[in-house]
Amino acid sequence: MLYFILFFNKKIKAILWYLILIALFYGPYATALGKQEKPKLVIVIDDIGHQRASAEAALALPGRLTLALLPFTPFSKEVAVKASDFGKEVILHSPMSAISPSKDAGFGALTSAQDEKYFLQTFNSQLNFLPGVRGVSNHMGSALTSQKIPMQWLMEQLKLRNLYFLDSRTTKLSKAARVAEANGVPYLERKFFLDNVVNQQAIIRKIEEAVNYSRKKGLAVAIGHPYPETLMLLSERLPEIERNGVDLVWASQALTEPSSLIDENFKYSVR
């Protein structure tokens, strides 16, 4: 009888030690699985500010979206003031010179012809036009973003102002992300343009590509424009995207994601 009790106690102790070892070695792994983050999708609506109707439609879109506002336009300041009430983040969509002479970035653009003093005056005028911006992206800019010196001037200012940079990637020669990283400026890069082709089926395909990419990589950054087709389709599909397990996030919420780093393997749209 005594032998049976001692044997039974040893068995209990062995089982307890086995359970403890399982908890020690597999507990953290199980916890990590349980806390696995949902894929994230950043959607930016560019070129906001020229028309009130499209600006208001962009504000009304469901979810956490980022609105890229053009400075010196009739309605961009109004949108910047309203944005937080609609759950939107705003960034300066800084006009920058393009490679093609036929592409005009607009009034108050940054160009490679400017010296440092005039460049910084121009950039500060852009920033001061819009209240509450969290970051900066390039409007056009295929020429300027490919040049290291003006990008250095830009990133130094962003660092001082605690702003991030979103590279629209309008050229494969862009140096913006590299210079941002060298200066400790948080940055993201555009992966998808949703509406280079402005028809419903093409936009739907691009939305689906962005969602699928976010599921695969953990994060996708997509840029659309305030075209009626784009705004209508996003209004319809964004709630469904979130119901299906993808988080819509502001650009600032995705800055630390590994897939925000430079991706050399996609097509560019020269602007």
Task: Write structural notes for this entry.
It is built from eight helices and nine strands. With 271 residues, the protein is α/β, with parallel strands linked by helices. The chain has two domains: 1-36; 40-260, Alpha-Beta Barrel (TIM Barrel), CATH 3.20.20.370. Strands 1, 2, 3, 4, 5, 6, 7, 8 and 9 form a nine-stranded parallel beta sheet that branches. α4 packs across α5 (148-161) and α7 runs parallel beside α8 (228-243). The longest helix is centred in the N-terminal third of the chain and has 33 residues, at 2-34. It is globular.
Task: Write a concise keyword list for the protein shown above.
8 helices; alpha/beta; 43% helix; 271 residues; TIM Barrel; globular
**Biggest β-sheet, characterized?**
9 strands, parallel
* Rg, nearest Å: 24 Å
Please state the overall shape, judged from the principal axes of the Cα atoms. Answer: globular
Strand content: 15-25%
Write down the CATH class of the largest domain.
Alpha Beta
CATH topology of the largest domain: TIM Barrel
> Total number of β-strand segments?
9
CATH level-four homologous superfamily name of the largest domain: Glycoside hydrolase/deacetylase
Low-confidence stretches: 2-8, 28-34, 257-270
Number of structural domains: 2
Mean pLDDT: 88
Count of runs of 4 or more consecutive helical residues: 8
CATH architecture of the largest domain: Alpha-Beta Barrel
Secondary-structure element series:
HEHEHEHEHEHEEHEHE
Portion of residues within helices: 40-55%
Structural class label? alpha/beta
Termini gap: 88 Å
